[in-house]
Every structure is written in structure tokens, then in C-alpha cells.
Amino acid sequence: MATSMKRRELFSSLAGIGASPASPQACTGASLIPNVPLRTHEDTEVRFYEDLVKGRQVIINMMYAHCEEFCPAITSRLVEIHQALASRMGRDLFMYSITVKPQEDDPAALHAFARMHGALLPGWTFLTGDAYDIETLRFALFRHDHIKFDLDPASHTAKLRIINDAINRWVHVPPMASKMTVLQHISWADPPKSFEERLEDNRKLQLAIDKEHALYGYRKIV
Amino acid sequence: MRSWNVLVLLLANAPTLLLAGNACEQESGTVRPDPQQYYMILAGQTDVFYDHSGPTFVMLQRTAADETDVGAFGIYAGERKQPVFGPVPTNVYERFVSESRKPADVLLRLSISKPQYDRALAVMQSWERRVRENALLYPDIAMDNILLVKQATEELNRCGETIAGYELDWGLQDDISEHNVASRIPYEYFRELARLNAARHVADAKQTLE
What we know:
The complex is a heterodimer. Chain A is an alpha/beta fold. Chain A has eight helices and seven strands. A seven-stranded mixed sheet of chain A has the order 2-1-5-4-3-6-7, sandwiched between helices. In chain A, helix 3 links the parallel strand 3 (57-63) and strand 4. Chain B is an alpha+beta fold. Chain B is built from seven helices and six strands. In chain B, strands 1, 2, 3, 4, 5 and 6 form a six-stranded mixed sheet that branches. In chain B, a hairpin with a 3-residue loop joins strand 3 and strand 4. Chains A and B meet through helix 5 and helix 6 of A and helix 4 and helix 5 of B.
């Protein structure tokens, strides 16, 4: 004999994260990213969050013009990254290189550094400012939560910070990782793709995997 | 009667002192007689907050014949006995310095030079600005306080070793950071500095202008 049972849903909402692309997540970038005043290598005053980061996907590193150890190698790696993503640069993707030695690096020094390294490129801005503001920014973006590392000027080279403020996604990657690894990390902060785009990406990836298996007998690069 | 100026106001109103590259030249140059005296006081307690840590702050004092500038900055107990990071209220540090203390409390009073005082004041001004602008460097005030006490005390030895120091850097040789939670590190650091510099401690009675 059938008995009637009262049924209650344990969860009132059936919507999960990602279920509805039309309902964006709350963005907390403004509370996380200092809106400090800075000057660009073209000697223009900007506000870091409002003018450079808000709603954008950005790649940020710290450097200084007379750094002779890692900075030139990292800058040339960033030039490669810029070339690989040239079609997006200055459109929906931006690069910011911030000096850790603002007392030494005025806009002219940064402009000369960028020119010397072939980095005067669209969508790539070098930034300087007040030492107090740079320190605030450095801790907000690159803090290790370890006193020794946080106070070590050399530690500025350890990370590239990638932020997509529109979807509140933060990623970091060592700048001297392989170009492919850096590009992959940048893609992790890309805007969400449609279902059709993801199907097409997967189809292409499977083709590439099959091709490598046919050529080498194993998956080599993809 | 000597007047007491509260250094917190001085911190808020004075132009920021920048640490110039030649900051040590003034210290190593000819010493002119200075009628004023300068002190850095490191104060710490334990077993006040829920995690058994306690107020730990740095005080600066400048005394002249008829006036004293004094101010303190660090972690102190708020109205609900919660840890608060910022300029320490006058009644809090005065009570700590004047009242009889528990054996576990730390109080190290060091006589310092004017350049040392100016540099330490610049550090504290910078932190006072960070509190005012809600621009602290760490999400945990215990970490900010570690940085404050480290920066302020290390200014004493910037131009040569004037006190016996301890390298608080979370490195391999830093036993204090290795064996203590962040909220307790400044207290243990002050305790170690007090042990290393016991002979340099200026007792209340030795303060000529007290």
C-alpha cells in the first residue's frame, strides 16, 4: 500500500557556482588592491586600482632599472609572453612592471629601461611612485607572510601576479618558469568561455594528443 | 612643572621624516651638546589576551628641562581586552611604565641619540599613517607588530652597533620566531633584548629629568 510522504528539500537553491554565467560573483578587488597614486613611464599620473586594474585581466611584476641579476631575464621572458599574446595586449590583457626602488627609478629611468629591453609595447606600463605606496602595493600583491622574505628586496623577482578583477581570480607563477607554463597560468585567469568554445577547445586538444601519439607513441608536449 | 606633550599628536601633525641616504652622517659627525635626552622604551606583557600573548609596544620619549614628548605604538589591550594595533593611549602606557609590574613583564629603557630617536620616530610615523589609512602590510596585526618592533629597534644599530641586537628575521638562526606564535614574538624579542642589554637599561631613578 502506497503511503504519502512529506518531502522537504534539504537545499533551497539548486544553483551552483558556474551554473549561471549571467550572475557574476561579487568582486572584492577594490578592497584587496590598493588604489595608490603612481606615475607611468610616460610620466602620467594614474590610480593603480581604478585606472589600471578595475575590471581587467592584468599581469604584474616588480623590478628596478638597475637590477642586473634577474630583472633583465624576467623582462625578456615577459617580452616573449607579450609576443605570444600580442593580439590581446592593450585590449583585454595588460602588463604592469612596478619598480621596487622608486627613489632611483623616475619615469624617465623606467622609460629608458623599457626601451633598452624592447618592452615599449602596447598594453605594457612601467610604474613608479611614492616609496610608502609602493611598499603597500608590494605587500598587497606579493606578500609571502614571512618576515625574512617580505623584507628581502631580492624576493620581488619570485612571482608574476595575474589578476582578472572582473571575475576576482588571482593566480601567481614564477616568472622564470617555462613560457608555456606562464601562458597556461595566464589562461587560468581568462574570462570564462562559453560551453561551445570549451567543446571546440577540447576537440582541438584531443586532435593534438592523437597526433602526438601517432608521431611519438606517447603524449609529448600537449 | 614640566609639561607632557603626547607624541601621538606629534606623529599625526609633523611632516614625515624621510630616511635620507646620508642618515648616518649626522650620527657620526661632531657631537654637539644636547640639553635634551632621548629614550626608547620597549614594553611587553604576557597572559593578557585569549592566546596568552599580551600588549607589546615601543615608546619614544624626548625630555627637556620643562617638557617631554612621549608616545607609544604597538599592540595594547582595548576596552574589551582585545588586542589593538596602533598608537597606544596615554593612560595605558603611563600605567604600564609607572605601576609595579609582574616579574614576567618586560621593560627596557634605552638612552638613545637624537638621530636614533628621529629614525625610530620616522618608522613609527609611517606605521601611524598605515593605521590611519587602513593600509597595514599584513592581514594579521601580530605580523604588523613584529615588523614595527623589528624596524624601530633596528634603527638603533643602523649606523653602528650601539645595542646588542638580535636578528629577528625568521631565518634558520632565529629561535624566537621558530618557537613562538606570531602574537608572542615581539614579547620574546623584547625579553631577549632586555637580557642582552641589561647593563644599558636606564632605571627610573637614573632618568635625570624624571
